[in-house]
Amino acid sequence: MRKLVIVLVAVVTALFMATVPAGADAPKFHSAAGSVTGSGALTVSFDERGLGNENIDYTLTADASAVFACINGGGNHPQAANKETVNSEVSATGSFEPRNGRVRASLTTGAPSAGGFSCPGGQRLVLASVTYTNIVLTDTTNGVSTSISSVSRTFFAV
After folding, report:
1. How many domains does one find in the chain?
2. Looking at the domain assignment, is residue 90 inside a domain?
3. Which residues of the chain have pLDDT under 70?
4. What pTM was estimated for this model as a whole?
5. Which pairs with CB-CB distance under 8 Å and at least 24 residues apart come from 147-153?
């Protein structure tokens, strides 16, 4: 009788362990694409699958190169040295709840800052263009990353 109880306990334990869902089965980015918003910020939209049901934390990082310029009242860039290129790193974080083991979401960084660059009177400061390179999206919960192709956008030809 004692052997029967031990065998039954072992079988029940094995069945229980086989039916308990894993936290993350095989996390993998199915797709991820970057774009530049109208304000010059980087947005990465993504689809990650093979997840459990707990919130997943993400980090988005990229190198940004932005050209700021001065535009006169006529909407033109004067032929002067009043433009500046700013290089910086940008990042964003977010946490999303999977639905059916999948997260479909977007993360957006802030646009690069012009820093101390300013324009003379009668001209306004604009973001002329921005390029994002070395874009990496990381699922920090599961240690999975994906690289995204560089993206850029020109707002004013200078």
Report:
1. 1
2. yes
3. 1-24, 74-81
4. 0.80
5. 148/32, 148/33, 148/34, 148/44, 149/33, 149/34, 150/34, 151/34, 151/35, 151/36, 151/42, 152/36, 153/36, 153/40, 153/129
